[in-house]
Amino acid sequence: MGKVIAFSNQKGGSGKTTLSANIAVLWSNSGYKVAVIDADAQKSLTYWIEERKKYYGEEDIGISSYNFDIRNINEELKKIKRKYDFIIIDSPPSITYDTLQIVRASNKVFVPAQPSPLDLMATLPFLELAKKERKNPIIILNRVMARAKLTDAMILRLRYAGARIARSRLSSKVIFAETFSVGRGVIDISVTSDAAKEIINAGNEILRNL
Predict the structure, then answer these.
(1) Cα–Cα distance measured from residue 168 to residue 196, given in angstroms and rounded to the nearest whole number
(2) Interatomic CA distance for residues 24 and 179, integer angstroms
């Protein structure tokens, strides 16, 4: 039975779609059967899937994409869980009925967040929502600058609030945006690059926490 993983946060631009796409590529290239669901109204992940089809061909992208009716999300997920090892949901950047249903339907919730005061303020209420649903969410820091004091300050605030923080983190390397725009992941380019190592570390840590 496949695991349902949600990348969720009410803060837009936190990195949900970047993680969704790159983790999907990592696991697909590792031999897992992977499906993605784009629940964000901006449909950035859908754009990425379409660009990936243009690059690799309609049948050769290695990842399946599904639409769903939020009112029947549990039933619709049941239909595809047997087909895939992992189903990744790119969640809306808000706390709404849709977000709550996605959190409830997921086996695990990961919360991308940038190390900034605005992200901190937006992330804490979402963490409380996920905790109330007994999902024990894990924060993945994204667009982290090397040796930035702001990152250390945010980590302290999050830990004070009782948040779980992943050891792995993503940097602000331009290659994440460059590969996304053409429907690829950093793993597609090179498995030995620094960006690829960040995704591999994040993917492995996610697997350990499922």
Answers:
(1) 12
(2) 14
Please give the structure tokens belonging to residue 65. 């994409």
Structure confidence at residue 150 (pLDDT): 73
Amino acid (1-letter code) at residue 170: L
- Distance from the Cα of residue 136 to its chain's centroid: 16
Q: Nearest 5 degrees, angle CA 34-CA 22-CA 135?
A: 70
* Beta-carbon contacts of residue 92 (< 8 Å; ≥ 6 apart): 39, 40, 41, 98, 99, 102
Which residue from 1, 32, 5, 3 is spatially nearest to 140, judged by alpha carbons?
5
Distance CA 77, CA 72 (A): 9
Q: Domain residues for 135?
A: 3-208
Residue 88: give its domain's CATH number.
Answer: 3.40.50.300
Measured CA to CA in angstroms, residue 51 lies from 7, 24, 152 at distances of 21, 15, 37
pLDDT of residue 163: 87
What's the number of domains the chain is made of? 1
pLDDT at residue 87 in the model: 98
CA distances from residue 44 to 16, 17, 18, 40 in whole angstroms, order as listed: 10, 7, 9, 8
Query: pTM (2 decimals)?
Result: 0.95
